[in-house]
Structure to design on (349 residues):
């Protein structure tokens, strides 16, 4: 690390802010030493707000039916080889109950943009989960919807919403998505969610096709301005049935470096060490936590459907029961000196 980079790092640590060109420089000139320097600072600042606790969120993959055709995604509508499924209301409620029984206080309902899940269907589900488990937070990750829809779901009791922005650069967004999807609508959704009072999560893939350092610097700037309560970042991993089948995957090392930067830019953000990171490296999630992440999302989906929710190849945790994943994560977290926190784990304001 040169003295120039060291100065940049120190300014980031102190001021939680750099210029776009400076983020780009920090990224491009990263080495083991600067990565360690930023990771240590990220861990220290996280400790100030969250101690050594790692939050756990139970993920229920409610449907892999999707009307969208994102070019990178294994469940895009044009993937005819994908075996489609949709959980019934009873199955979803059973997964939520199981998560609660295992001690989790957040359920995340994630799925493709499946027309079956109308506002009416979702509101009823949310109300039932909230009635059964009033001390549970309900997080949704169901894609782009209208402001009215987000408002109804909020009214029914949803607390949080995850919608990755995917890339903060409109041209890059257009490369990764079909013509009928728009960057502007994505941003509209994120603004509406925040405005309606959701704890809102954005995020992006690291190493997605055509991604440049400039794009990453823009992503960091976007996070700085938008101040999401949550931010999901993980490596891009090719899926064999997409046009990106032969593209290289994103790196664990760069993902961890960016986790540290994001922690420093936005100290209280809830930052998951993602399943994609765990897929790319046997200790990927631990490395993520050691770089500044503080959330893990064990899978609560019925084991029978897990392989079908294949956004990318070789996804981990597709054969393990929910209880096994939770135990596995607790062991991993303890092995690196952290502790699982089972409370709701809201954004600390
Ligand atoms: N590799 C990594 N992450 C992916 N996602 C979708 N496809 C892939 C892939 N091939 C991410 C997107 C999406 C989230 C649910 O999963 O960022 O928003
Ligand atoms: Fe699922 Fe380890 S977290 S098996």
């Amino acid at each position: 690390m040169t003295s120039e980079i060291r100065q940049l790092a120190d300014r980031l640590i102190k001021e939680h802010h750099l210029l776009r060109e400076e983020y780009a420089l920090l990224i491009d000139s990263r080495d083991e030493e600067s990565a360690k320097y930023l990771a240590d600072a990220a861990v220290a600042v996280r400790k100030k707000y969250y101690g050594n606790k790692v939050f756990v969120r139970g993920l229920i993959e409610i449907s892999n039916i999707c009307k969208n055709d994102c070019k990178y995604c294994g469940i895009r509508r044009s993937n005819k080889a994908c075996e489609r499924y949709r959980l019934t209301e009873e199955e979803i409620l059973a997964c939520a109950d199981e998560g609660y029984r295992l001690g989790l206080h957040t359920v995340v309902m994630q799925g493709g943009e499946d027309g079956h899940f109308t506002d009416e269907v979702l509101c009823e589900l949310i109300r039932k989960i909230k009635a059964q488990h009033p001390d549970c937070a309900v997080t949704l990750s169901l894609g782009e919807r209208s402001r009215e829809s987000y408002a109804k779901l909020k009214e029914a009791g949803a607390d949080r919403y995850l919608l990755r922005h995917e890339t903060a650069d409109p041209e890059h967004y257009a490369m990764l998505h079909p013509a009928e999807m728009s960057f502007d609508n994505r941003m509209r959704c994120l603004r509406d969610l925040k405005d309606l009072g959701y704890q809102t999560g954005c995020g992006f893939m690291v190493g997605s096709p055509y991604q440049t350092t400039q794009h990453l610097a823009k992503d960091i700037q976007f996070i700085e301005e938008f101040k999401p309560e949550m931010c999901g970042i993980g490596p891009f991993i090719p899926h064999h049935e997409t046009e990106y089948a032969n593209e290289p995957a994103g790196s664990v090392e760069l993902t961890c470096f960016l986790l540290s930067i994001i922690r420093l830019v936005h100290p209280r953000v809830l930052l998951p060490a993602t399943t994609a990171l765990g897929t790319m490296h046997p200790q990927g999630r631990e490395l993520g936590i050691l770089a500044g992440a503080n959330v893990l999302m064990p899978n609560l989906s019925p084991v029978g459907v897990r392989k079908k929710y294949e956004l990318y190849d070789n996804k981990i945790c597709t054969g393990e029961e929910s209880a096994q994943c939770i135990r596995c994560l607790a062991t991993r977290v303890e092995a690196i000196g952290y502790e699982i926190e089972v409370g709701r784990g809201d954004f600390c304001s």
Remarks:
- Strands lie at 53-56, 58-63, 106-111, 137-141, 160-162, 199-206, 230-235, 295-296, 339-341.
- The CA atoms of residues 67 and 122 lie 17 Å apart.
- The radius of gyration is 19 Å.
- The domain at 56-203+210-246+301-335 is CATH 3.20.20.70 (TIM Barrel).
